[in-house]
Amino acid sequence: MPGPLPLLALRAFAAVGREGSVKAAASLLGVTPGAVSQQIRQLEIRLGTALFIRGNREITLTRAGLRLLPEVAGGFDRIEQALERFDRRRRNARTSVRIGTTASFAATWLVPRLGRFSARHPRIEVQVLTSADLVPVGQGAASVDMAIRHGLGVYPGLESERLLQPRLIPVGSPSLLANGAPIRRPEDCLRYPLLQDADGMDWALWLCALGVADPDRLARRGNSFSDDYLLVRAAMAGQGLALVRDTYAAEEIAAGRLVRALDIPWPAAFAYWLVTRPGAGAHSSGIAALRTWLLDEATEAARK
Predict the structure, then answer these.
(1) What's the CA gap between 29 and 33, in Å, rounded?
(2) Main-chain dihedrals φ then ψ at residue 96, nearest 5 degrees
(3) Cα separation, 239 vs 227, whole angstroms
(4) Model-wide pTM > 0.70
(5) What is the tens place of the pLDDT at every residue in 19-40?
(6) Measured at the alpha carbon of residue 27, what is the angle toward residues 24 and 31, in degrees to the nearest 5?
(7) 249 phi and psi, to 5 degrees?
C-alpha cells in the first residue's frame, strides 16, 4: 500500500464503526461530520473497497469494514493505553519545588526540618534559595515556587498564609539603656543606634506593624549581621538596640547581660508568611504537599 499511513482516516473509521454514527464520531473527535465523511471516503479510495453502507439515516459496516474494525480499533486502544502508562510514569517521577527565604530562617528553622518532609515525600525534591531580597514568586526563570517572608503578609498579586509568629523584642546592653534616653513607646527606639538583621527590614516592619511612621527611614540605618548570634553579641557590646527573638535573648537577659528595652503587646500582623501564586497548589502536587507540610510543622512548633 503506497504512501504514508492515513492515521486520521483510520481514526475516523474506528470512531464511526464504534459509534455507528458519523455525527457521534465527529463529536467524539472534535471535528465536523463533513470532515469525518471526507476522511472515510479517502480511506475507502486508498483501500479500494467500501467500508460502510450508507442509508438515509444510518450507516453500517460492510463485510470488509467488519473485518478491519477490530484490528484498527484495537491498535488505537493500545496507543491510548501506552499514553496512559507514560502519563502515570510522568506523574510518579520526581518533582522539584523551589522555595525562597532568608538565610537565617533557612538555617534555624527550615533546613533542620526538611529531612522529615523528604522521608514523607521521597519523590519531591526541595531547592532552598536564600536571599535578603524579595525573590519573585512563580514568574520567570529566577523565580521560586513559594517563599517564606518575614513581614506584614501584604504581597500584591500573591496569596499569603500565616506560618509562624516568633516574638521579637528590642534589647540592649544595661549601660546603653542606662545612659540613653528613656524608651516608653516604640518610636523612642529610633533615638538609639539600631542593629539590623541580614535583610535590614525587621525594625522597619516592626515599627510599621505598631503604627509608627518613619518618613526619614531611620529604622533602616545601622550595622547589619547575617547571624542572630552575632546580632545578640553586638547588642551585648553596647553597639545599639537589636530586635531579636525572645528565645535567643532569654539567657542573656536572665544573666543581666542584656535588658529588654520595651515591653508591649506583640503586633499580630508581624509574622513569617508562606507566599505562593494564586492557585499554585492546584496545579502542582509538589507545591501542595510542601505547603501542607510547612503549615503542619508550624502548628506543631507553636504547641511547644
Answers:
(1) 10
(2) -115, 135
(3) 16
(4) no
(5) 888 898 888 888 898 999 999 9
(6) 125
(7) -100, -5
